[in-house]
Amino acid sequence: MPAITFIKRDGDEVTLDVSAGQSVMEIGRDGNLGIEGTCGGSLSCATCHVIIDDAWIDAVGKPSLDEEDMLDLAFNVEANSRLGCQIKMDAKLDGLKVRIADED
Predict the structure, then answer these.
(1) Which CATH number belongs to the domain containing residue 33 in this structure?
(2) Which structural domain, as residue segments, surrounds residue 29?
(3) What is the pTM assigned to this prediction?
């Protein structure tokens, strides 16, 4: 069972053990951590915008072109920005650390 650490907008860190196959968006939304996930993971909004910790960039991989297009609509995009709906947890992501992006 992989673990993920979220850094909330207020700076608090929350670490959760999760099931493989869950998306970062689902975990953050269902855990009331500040991720909205308006589109439910259909890659048609950017309300699950997270910033990947530098140590995890290679393991998470690069965004698709469609994801990059949606990130163009997001606020406060950084080099390590990703949409949480596009990241599925598995054993190789055990220990993943993400920061929930500011909305404004």
Answers:
(1) 3.10.20.30
(2) 3-100
(3) 0.95
Give the tens place of pLDDT for each residue, 52-61. Answer: 999 999 999 9
DSSP H helices in 1-94: 24-30, 57-60, 65-71
Distance in angstroms (rounded) separating the CA atoms of residues 68 and 56: 18
Residues 6+ apart with CB under 8 A from 45: 38, 39, 70, 73
CA pair distance 97, 44, nearest whole angstrom: 24
Nearest-Å Rg of the Cα atoms of the chain is: 12
pLDDT digits (tens, 9 = 90+) for 67-89: 999 999 999 999 999 999 999 99
Give the total number of structural domains in the chain. Answer: 1
